[in-house]
Amino acid sequence: MVLDLFAGPGGWSHALTLLGMRDVGLEWDTWACNTRARAGQLTIQTDVARYPAWIFSGRVLGLIASPPCQAWSRAGKRLGLVDQPLVHQAVADLAAGRDTREQLLAACADPRSLLAAEPMRYLHALHTAGEPEWIAMEEVPDVLPLWKQYAAILRGWGFSVWTGILNSADYGVPQTRKRAILLASRVRTAEPPPPTHAQVAEDTTLFGLRRARWVSMAQALGWGRTDGPVPTVCAGGGPGGGPEPFPSGSRKTLTDARDRGSWAPHPGGVILSSRHQRPGPAVRKGSRSDRAVDHAAPVEASSWAWSLRSNNQANATVRRADEPAGTLFFGHRANECTWVAEPSAGAEDTSQSQSVPEPIRITAREAGILQSFPADYPWAGNKGQQFSQIGNAVPPRLAAHLLAPHLNVPFNPDDFTLAA
């Protein structure tokens, strides 16, 4: 079997499915387990830190591990860095067959920090049976020193090991998500997969390889296609200005309002060009609908381009729709990612003549696509629970690139349909 620790909603599992294999995932979160069940993935709902590792001895081909990143992520308090010496000690002890987790856990500033040492407990139990054949692990970049400690131990056990930082955008994921990766094998030289994409498209090299341009958010989401999905519009005025097209409190998409506007690609991003404007209903002065009617001035095609803003902080990452997204993270900032309108390239000053279109919250479906999950992936739970799963997931497209060489199977990137 392929054993997947901290399996989450199935980033690694979906990649394995496309490669013709399945894994057994260990995951404690109920909603992630429900998502996995809907996707047809095998799951043991359990605490990885408490499950007996010896049960799998003699049965494991490959081991995958993506420990929770909250203790180490730049989006949080990063107490994992404070606890790093304790985690290194836990890894060294577990590799030697000594379980000191209870004592070390009591000294941790964040109890989640020690979860990064759990893969070594399983690896030590499997090593006695000459397993696994290969290993793939992923975490936030600050965990790289820990992966290097794992690598030193694994090399002593006869593995070829590679560790480093990979950018998901270099492998066709519409997101510049950088991750610390560990790849190890007993039967082949461990090395990173060759990147397929670059920030700027490349000409054919001396080796005959050519990398395509990074996949943009607009490209992944199908914006600009007449049959593709478009951003969701919240009641209170459409993103391109104009009267509120739907009843107050409703939530529709621009697909449902094609008589009012259409999305089109633009060098500066994705813009909304109004085909025509209709007069709004008579409303009481000062009401919410009245404020929407005040935005009824026609919007020229060159006026506004859409960007994704990662949160409401002053230093938030903002990326145009014709670029990949920044790293998506949710949780305590659930659903703070919003589409915001900015003057498009070459547009004249619109500050006086037109109002800025209102921000639009990103949907879970859009966030999943930007993680390279299929548009119809069966996310379970409410909006916050879905965003939490998506933000913590491994991009399946990156996972497939990492796993295909170990499985000796071809990987066809066209299997990722994204917004199709």
From TrEMBL:
Keyword Membrane on entry: no
GO molecular function: DNA (cytosine-5-)-methyltransferase activity
Signal peptide range: none
GO BP: any one term: DNA restriction-modification system
Superkingdom assignment: Bacteria
Catalytic residues as annotated in Swiss-Prot or TrEMBL: 69
Entry's EC annotation: 2.1.1.37
A Pfam family the protein falls into: DNA_methylase
Region (Disordered): 238-295
UniProt cross-references to PANTHER family, sorted A to Z: CYTOSINE-SPECIFIC METHYLTRANSFERASE (PTHR10629), DNA (CYTOSINE-5)-METHYLTRANSFERASE 1 (PTHR10629:SF52)
Family: Belongs to the class I-like SAM-binding methyltransferase superfamily. C5-methyltransferase family.
Protein name: DNA (cytosine-5-)-methyltransferase
